[in-house]
Amino acid sequence: MEGLKEAIEFITNLKEGSMEPKVLDINGNTYCNKNLTRYHYFPKADSLSVNTLTSIVDYIKGKPEELRETMILHVISPTEVRLYSGLVDERNREELMRADAIVNEFRFDRYYDQERFLIELQANFIESDDLTVLKQVAGNIESGTTANYDDDGVSQKTTIKSGIANKTDVIVPNPVKLRPYRTFAEIEQPQSSYVFRIQDSDRGPSFKLVEADGGLWKNATMKKIKEYLAYELAEELEKYNITIIA
73: how many CB neighbours lie within 10 A of its CB? Predict the structure, then answer.
């Protein structure tokens, strides 16, 4: 009997599935007994993926016929910009291009061993006076000499090699101002303050940098990206009804 009941339910469901949808009006709201998918949809282009702001500028200048009546350049973050159309018939937007900056992979607030830290500094930061000092301290530190200099969690002192046989006690520089690669190449890399920390371990000294500006650089950098696009597309913004938001 149980198998017969299941068979009857299956046949009933098949019958209901083949029937025309029922539309009901209840208290001024319209309901349907089926989930309907609109067959016709507004055709959209596949989004282009690039890594530079120059590519966006070149595309807008070189392919204006592919733009819609209104366009939006959305600066989403210091590493992400999207080119959207205005609202289309389906009340959504067409994404024509996405730009994602290639940035360094330095992991802040994480300790690196001495060799890896020095490599990361050279590969992921723009040369500056503070970076030079940082490399000198990290590259010449004596293992087992780092000590707390003050009880504020920031200042430290350590011993570095100052010659073949000479050693010098120095206060670890803090904070340090550095320019890591963290936005598009067309934009001046933002400078921020970092707390530099050293700790000793059985495997030798290790180092880390901790961001100390609360992420304020992000808003400033997004503003610079907007200014760059506005300058490079000064004529196109008005001609093709393009709005930049950041």
Answer: 25
